[in-house]
Every structure is written in structure tokens, then in C-alpha cells.
């Protein structure tokens, strides 16, 4: 496969001024991240600070109703409450090894911003986080957490004031401050090497799930399910199972309200190939190539593109991609709360909704793992708005 590509997707389509820092990160990825001392230190921090490994939790009540065995990979129990911490610890550690002083990040739901601020504080780095003004309002709790951790949060007023606009602003800042700054990209998207770099740091999720499956129920799972915005939690779960052809992999995109013509975030299910944020991938665009607005009740899924490895997995048929709407995600949110005593993030609720909505397509007795990418306390303001 061509360097930096996943089939026909990926690559590095960036302005000339961004090439020096991208090439610097690529070189560090090949020489530092692959080294044994780095991996040993990264593993130690994941164990001692992040709290890995996270459990694989059986859901007895929902399993009884559904007719198959439902397990949750509990990334909500990692430090800061989401899978995002795996990647930010990895990139913060990389930044230290590269001699950088500042971690730069963008965030939608706020979880990546909190995780970046946490990693920066732990490793003694400055932290600047760009966040769409709309997301600043609907994730005020996470904004306060970032500020308590010492980060400077910069609201972005341009465009739809959401994640894509925050990424645009972060890239502009990186061009001017590349000497001392590492851009801690938050998902498995963007220009090479970020899709592979983020995937590798998140692959701990799948490696643990694979080992825990064998230990807990004596075989590999039949089905993996994860929500997909940019797709970092999904690719982190899927990667360790890529060669296990009997294991189905399903990514769940956000269908918005589900009404005809509504804004949504179905970059794979409804998008077309194009170049966005430095990579060729599936994205929401007009016939003229202009980026269309996206929407999801879950801020972390509110993104008009997707990581290029997911676009390739869809094109190759190795993974399936479906969608659920806001109402279905809210129903799944309530079901998991009331049946299992677990409050999931609205992003993760889309993955849970798949197994509830498509239960008839899953054979009885199957072993199903849903990646619970984050916890739902960050979403209480949105939940109150919709459910009262």
C-alpha cells in the first residue's frame, strides 16, 4: 500500500507551510514511537496513570432481552472518562521527546480537549485548545475542566462554529508556531501521519478487548460495534481484529434528526470522496466540492468527514457502516442507564442504539462488543434540553 494511504484514501494534501511540521512528526513517528524505550514508557503511563486495562463488562439485563451476549469495552472508566486519553498521552510523550513546549489541540465534545489538557499538565507542557463557539456553549462543563487543568481555550466563531472550524483554526496556529508546538490531532483523520499515529495509540483498546474476549468467554467476539465521527475509538477497537475475518465490524454514524433533508454526519453512508483536512476521504460536500454543514446531537460525531482508514474499510467491504438518528441514540442512552446502571456518552449511545435497533440481524447467542468510548456526565445539559 502506498505510504500514507489506505487503498485510495489518505495521503497528505496540505499547504506548503504545513509540510515542515508534518514531515517532522512523520520522522518522529518512525524513529521515536516505534522504539522500545518509548513504548515501554507509554505502556507504564497507561497502566499507572490512565488506569488501563479497562474492563470488558457483560450486560446481563440487556443481553436477556436481546437474545445475545452484550459486552461493553469500558473506555468511560479510563482517566478523564473517555478513550481520548490514550492518544493524548501518546502524543504528549512524543512532543516531549521532540523537544516541544506546547500541545495544541482542537475539540468538539470537549473530551479530547480535556484529555490533551490532562496530558499536558502531567508531562509539563503548555496547552492551547481551539473549540467551536457552539460547542463551547453546549460543553461548558468540559471547558471549565480544561481551564482548571491549565489549558487556554480559544472559541472559534467562524463557519458553523463546530469541530471542523476548530481544526481549521488549529492548523492556522500551527503554521505560525511550529518550532515549539506539537499539534495533538484528536482523531484518526487529517494528513499523514496522523491517521496511523492516532490509530496506533488507540489500538490498545482492541488489543485488550481481544485478550479479554479469550479470557472471559473463550473465543473471539462475533461482532464489534463502535460509533464513528472522525473514527478514532472505532479504529482503535477494530485494528487488532483486522485479520480475523469471522469477526464482523460495524461503524455507526450519526443521522441527525433523521428527517428528509436534515443535517447529519454520515460521511460514509451519504458522502462522496474528496479532500478534507489534508486527506482524501469520504466527506459531506456539494457537487461543487464545498463542505456541507454537519449535525449530531453528540458533539463528538458532528464532523463532515471521516478518517481515511474507515473510508478504505468501507470500500474494501471489511467493515460495515450504518447510521442511527438522534432519537434512537437517546433511547439507547436511557436503556443503558436504566437496565445496566451505566450512563454513556451520547457518542457511544449511537453504537448502543445499533444493537437495539438491529437486534433481529444479530444471531441468538452471539458475542457482541460495543465500545463505550466515553461517559455521559458531559452531556447532561443536552440530555436535559431534549428529555427535560
TrEMBL record:
The lineage of its organism: Bacteria, Pseudomonadati, Thermodesulfobacteriota, Desulfovibrionia, Desulfovibrionales. Gene3D superfamilies: 3.40.50.1100. This is Tryptophan synthase beta chain. Pfam families: PALP. Its EC number is 4.2.1.20. One of its GO terms (molecular function) is tryptophan synthase activity. The modification N6-(pyridoxal phosphate)lysine is found at residue 84. The beta subunit is responsible for the synthesis of L-tryptophan from indole and L-serine. It comes from Desulfovibrio ferrophilus. HAMAP family: Trp_synth_beta. Its cofactor is pyridoxal 5'-phosphate.
Amino acid at each position: 500500500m502506498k505510504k500514507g494511504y489506505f487503498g485510495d484514501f489518505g495521503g497528505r494534501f496540505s499547504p506548503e507551510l504545513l509540510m515542515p511540521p508534518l514531515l517532522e512528526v512523520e520522522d518522529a513517528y518512525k524513529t521515536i514511537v516505534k522504539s522500545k524505550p518509548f513504548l515501554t514508557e507509554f505502556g507504564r503511563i497507561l497502566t499507572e496513570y490512565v488506569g488501563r486495562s479497562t474492563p470488558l463488562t457483560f450486560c446481563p439485563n440487556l443481553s436477556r432481552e436481546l437474545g445475545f451476549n452484550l459486552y461493553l469495552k469500558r473506555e468511560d472508566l479510563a482517566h478523564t472518562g473517555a478513550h481520548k486519553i490514550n492518544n493524548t498521552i501518546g502524543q504528549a510523550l512524543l512532543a516531549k521527546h521532540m523537544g516541544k513546549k506546547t500541545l495544541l489541540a482542537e475539540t468538539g465534545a470537549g473530551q479530547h480537549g480535556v484529555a490533551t489538557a490532562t496530558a499536558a499538565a502531567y508531562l509539563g507542557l503548555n496547552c492551547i485548545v481551539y473549540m467551536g463557539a457552539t460547542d463551547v456553549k453546549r460543553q461548558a462543563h468540559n471547558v471549565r475542566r480544561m481551564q482548571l487543568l491549565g489549558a487556554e481555550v480559544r472559541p472559534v466563531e467562524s463557519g458553523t462554529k463546530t469541530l471542523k472550524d476548530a481544526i481549521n483554526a488549529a492548523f492556522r496556529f500551527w503554521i505560525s508556531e511550529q518550532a515549539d508546538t506539537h499539534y495533538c490531532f484528536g482523531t484518526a483523520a487529517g494528513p499523514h501521519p496522523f491517521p496511523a499515529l492516532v490509530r496506533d495509540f488507540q489500538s490498545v483498546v482492541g488489543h485488550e478487548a481481544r485478550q479479554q474476549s479469550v479470557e472471559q468467554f473463550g473465543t473471539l467476539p462475533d461482532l464489534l460495534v463502535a460509533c464513528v465521527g472522525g473514527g478514532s475509538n472505532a479504529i482503535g477497537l477494530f485494528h487488532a481484529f483486522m485479520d480475523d475475518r469471522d469477526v464482523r465490524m460495524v461503524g455507526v454514524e450519526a443521522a441527525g434528526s433523521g428527517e428528509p433533508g436534515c443535517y447529519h454526519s454520515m460521511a460514509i453512508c451519504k458522502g462522496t470522496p474528496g479532500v478534507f483536512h489534508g486527506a482524501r476521504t469520504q466527506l459531506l460536500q456539494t457537487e461543487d466540492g464545498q463542505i456541507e454543514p454537519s449535525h449530531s446531537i453528540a458533539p463528538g460525531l458532528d464532523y463532515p468527514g471521516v478518517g481515511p482508514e474507515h473510508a478504505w474499510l468501507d470500500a474494501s467491504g471489511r467493515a460495515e457502516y450504518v447510521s442511527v438518528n438522534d432519537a434512537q441514540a437517546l433511547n439507547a442512552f436511557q436503556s443503558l442507564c436504566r437496565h445496566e446502571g451505566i450512563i454513556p456518552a451520547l457518542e457511544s449511545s449511537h453504537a448502543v442504539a445499533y444493537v437495539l435497533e438491529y437486534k433481529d440481524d444479530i444471531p441468538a447467542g452471539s458475542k457482541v462488543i460495543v465500545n463505550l468510548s466515553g461517559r455521559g456526565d458531559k452531556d447532561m445539559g443536552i440530555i436535559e434540553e431534549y428529555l427535560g
